[in-house]
Every structure is written in C-alpha cells, then in structure tokens.
C-alpha cells in the first residue's frame, strides 16, 4: 500500500480554510493555492538525500551539504495543477516542469487526455505530480499511468484536498506512488465533487465561472 502523508502544519490548515471560503475571489484563491503548494513542497521534500561538498567561504574552506544527484521534475495536471507550480518552484527552482492535460468528462467523470509534454530525461527524475483536487482519483491515476508509460519510476503525488474514494483508488492502482495530502475530506457528492471541498479548482483559479 502506498505511503500517505496528511499535512499537520497550522499554516497549511489555516490557508486551506481560506481557499474553501466561497467569498475568496480568484486573486486571493490563486495566491493561497500557490502558498499551500510551497508549504506542502517543504514537507514533501523532507526525505531528499544530501551529499557533502567542500567549498570556500570568504573565511575558510568548509564542508556543506547539497541535494544529492536526483534530478527533480514538477508535473501539473492541467488546468488546476498549474496553480501549484510557482509555489513548488519557489522551493525547488532547479526542477524541470512537464505538463499533462486531462479533463473530467461531465457525464462519466472519467478523465480525457488532451496534452502531454514532459522533460526528455523523465525516467531519471524524481517527479512531483501536482493537482489541487483528488476526487474520484481518475485524473491522478491516469496521469501516473501516462508518466509510467514514458518511463517514470519515482513518482510522488501532491494534492491540497482529497476525497477518501480518490485516495483509495490511487493507492490501489498505483501502490508505489507516495501521496501527500493537504486535507482529507469527507466524501464525494452525486456530481463527484468533494464535500466540503472548495468547488471547481480550475474555475476558481482562472475565474472561468
Ligand atoms: C479537476 C481537478 C482534477 C480532477 C479531479 O480537474 O483539477 O484534475 O478534476 O477529479 P477526479 O479525481 O475525479 O479525476 P477538471 O477535470 O475539472 O479539469 P480542469 O482543471 O481543466 O478544470
Ligand atoms: N474537481 C474539482 O475541481 N473539484 C472537485 O470537488 C472535484 C473535482
């Protein structure tokens, strides 16, 4: 079974409370999603390996630590995943960015793929797949399948709000993927929206409704 980390940090909890509020407009919503992504990135990179290197300070030679070897990639699921990229890049600026375009069919709620552009060396990279919402799990699971077909081996999935149904599906279909969740919500409604959730993440980020 895949490892799941649910965020405990008070700042993350506070900011998720603000994004849930229907009164929060697009500008604040975007900023908050980016800030939560940055804080979650801090938590989700805790286990990255370090190596010692020798450098000169203005005073003397010394040994410092830097991230070891592994190259990183951030892959947002379009559209809403785009809202998490800047916050992630603020923490890991050397990461490459790939894009996977998926949308949920309105009737079946199954994901439809429309775009995929990934760094050429994706099989060698540690991947942070990001999307604010894990609802049925269809989109996240399809995105992981797509990444694996391109040779990706080390994949972490990060979302801000998850439903138990989506978490169970992703864990079952991809037990090797480590999952980072801002908050685990109650259930999905009849339209497969997360309850209490925050509504449609893409529409709220881009102001399309
Ligand atoms: C939303 C969200 C996820 C997906 C989650 O995207 O950003 O990608 O739904 O639902 P699931 O777990 O049931 O697949 P949406 O399909 O609305 O596309 P958009 O971001 O382009 O608006
Ligand atoms: N996609 C969203 O943006 N919100 C949900 O609650 C479910 C899917």
Structure description:
With 209 residues, the protein is of the alpha/beta class. The protein has one domain (4-206): Rossmann fold, CATH 3.40.50.2020. The chain has helices at 10-20, 26-44, 85-91, 138-149, 164-173, 201-206; strands at 4-6, 50-56, 61-67, 71-78, 96-97, 99-104, 111-117, 125-130, 133-134, 154-162, 178-184, 187-188, 194-195. The strands form three sheets. Strands 1, 4, 5, 6, 7, 8, 9, 10 and 11 form a nine-stranded mixed sheet that branches. Strands 2-3 form a two-stranded antiparallel sheet. α4 links the parallel β9 (133-134) and β10 (154-162). α1 runs antiparallel to α2 (26-44). The N and C termini lie far apart (38 Å). The model has no long low-confidence stretch (mean pLDDT 96). It binds 1-O-pyrophosphono-5-O-phosphono-alpha-D-ribofuranose and uracil.
Reconstruct the topology from this structure:
Elements: E1 4-6, H1 10-20, H2 26-44, E2 50-56, E3 61-67, E4 71-78, H3 85-91, E5 96-97, E6 99-104, E7 111-117, E8 125-130, E9 133-134, H4 138-149, E10 154-162, H5 164-173, E11 178-184, E12 187-188, E13 194-195, H6 201-206
Parallel strand pairs: 1-11, 4-5, 4-6, 4-8, 8-10, 9-10, 10-11
Antiparallel strand pairs: 2-3, 6-7, 12-13
Helix pairs in contact: 1-2, 2-3
């Amino acid at each position: 079974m895949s490892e799941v980390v649910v965020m405990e940090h008070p700042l993350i909890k506070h900011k998720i409370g603000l994004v849930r509020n229907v009164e929060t407009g697009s500008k604040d919503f975007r900023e908050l999603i980016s800030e939560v992504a940055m804080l979650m990135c801090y938590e989700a990179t805790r286990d990255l390996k370090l190596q010692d290197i020798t450098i000169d300070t203005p005073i003397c030679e010394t040994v410092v630590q830097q991230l070891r070897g592994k190259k990183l990639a951030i892959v947002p699921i379009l559209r809403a995943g785009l809202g998490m990229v800047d916050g992630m890049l603020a923490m890991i600026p050397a990461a490459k960015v790939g894009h996977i375009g998926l949308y949920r069919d309105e009737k079946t709620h199954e994901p439809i793929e429309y775009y995929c552009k990934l760094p050429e060396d994706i099989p060698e990279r540690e991947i942070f797949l990001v999307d604010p919402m894990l609802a049925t799990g269809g989109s996240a699971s399809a995105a992981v399948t797509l990444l694996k077909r391109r040779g990706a081996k080390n994949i972490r999935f990060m979302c801000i709000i998850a439903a138990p149904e989506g978490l169970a599906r992703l864990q079952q279909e991809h037990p090797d993927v480590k999952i980072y969740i801002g908050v685990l919500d109650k259930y999905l409604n009849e339209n497969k929206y997360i309850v209490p959730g925050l509504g449609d993440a893409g529409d709220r980020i881009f102001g399309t409704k």
